[in-house]
Specification:
Length: 95
């Protein structure tokens, strides 16, 4: 919520002042730097405490893969599904 408050402060500072007068620049700089610091710390904490410990639940993935609705409803044949759904291509960004 502090980042959202800083966003409002930056918006108000930018809209109520003329940048040439440098009246609101300290407010804008302070709020921006505070938000960047908070977001950086939050990202590092999330990576350390959440992302590093994530492991794939292979049993659940296999179960969901074989109980796919498209197969159950005969929307796709098993061969069509295998051609379209390649799990190896789903584990990272596509190029």
């Amino acid at each position: 919520m502090l980042v959202m408050g800083n966003h409002v402060a930056i918006t108000v500072g930018g809209s109520n002042g003329h940048f040439e007068l440098i009246v609101y620049k300290p407010l804008i700089a302070s709020a921006l730097l505070r938000s960047l610091r908070l977001l950086g710390d939050a990202s590092a904490s999330s990576e350390k405490n959440c992302v590093r410990s994530i492991e794939a639940n292979r049993e659940r993935i296999s179960k969901l893969l074989h109980e796919e609705a498209a197969l159950k409803l005969n929307v796709l044949t098993s061969d069509e599904f295998d051609k379209l759904v390649v799990p190896e291509k789903m584990i990272g960004p596509s190029d």
